[in-house]
Amino acid sequence: MRTLTALSAIYLASAAAFGTVIAFQQNPELQRAAQQAGERIWPGIQRGAAIANERAVKPAAAQLVVWDKAFFDYIDPPKQFARAQPAPRLAAARPAPKAEPVVHFAPVTVSPPVAVAKLAPPEDQPASPALRPSVPDDQVASAQKPAPLELAPQAEAAARPELASPGASEVRRVVQRLKDNLTSELLANFELFLYVSKAEDGPWAQRMYVFRKQAKGDLDLLYNWPVSTGRELVEYAPNGQRAPSFTPQGYYELDPDRMYRHHVSGQWNQSMPYAMFFNWERDGLQTGLAIHGATSEDVAMLGKRASAGCVRIAPQNAALLFNLIKTQYRGLAPRFAYDRRTATMSNDGLLMHDAEGHVKLADGYKVLVFIENYGGDNVVAAVF
Question: Which range of residues forms the domain containing residue 51?
Fold first, then answer.
């Protein structure tokens, strides 16, 4: 209630002041007159207010406080609260320590060890009666080691005449065929010539002929072996890439920087022992074509189109050719022409020349590989 009274008085005073301010703002003349009058009478008002405050306001306020307290005490007497006296603190008795029970252990008597009688072997014990005739132990004979099987050398199928080595007359025809396809520059600048027939049929089909050039330019046959060239199909490699299995015709030399005794094709995930890669760039990239040894079941496929594009030969023949080339035919070899517009190296037998017309030579192998789709018949095999 006291708080409510004080708030009411403050509200009335604030309202009066607020109303006076509004009246002055709405009437400038009244504001100026009040200001002038205030300036004249303000000192007297201050003195009078001070005297009234000391002689009337303060005593009256004090008396009002007394009357107000008496009035509110009459209508709302203060409640008397009994204060609880704190109880005297009792000394807590400590509990007597419990006596630990004493356990008496009786001495343990250890029983003497039991003597176990050992059975002595019977002396002249009579045999027990047999219920059935005694069965002698089975005598297992030790197994005899089988004699090692002697594998017959792989025979060439008689049903495929193209696997048989050509006779002397056929070899002369192969030599003439090769010479007819060699320019004078090619014959002069290479020393070892590999003629490969990628044909599917014919007496020369799927064979490689290795010729060594003599001093007078004659070509002597060193070896002729069955091969497997590309399957000539559009296929997909195990890694999912589109990989046509074509063996392109043309003239190739070997890359001196890519001669590997042990190599695995990353595209086909197949072993390529004694890999001899072609130095042939196409569309700005070195191709993966190579001569290499066949492995596992691929050996039995020699004489057929069975590779992914490379020229496969028997592994022993690959090792022989690899070592022959590495040891005897390293030297300056011609460079094939290069088309800068397509970033492709020529495989048509065109050589690169300097400004004076001389054949450009570079370090490499003086070995020329010539592949064509001709099987030795008078009719050229179908072109794929």
Answer: 2-61
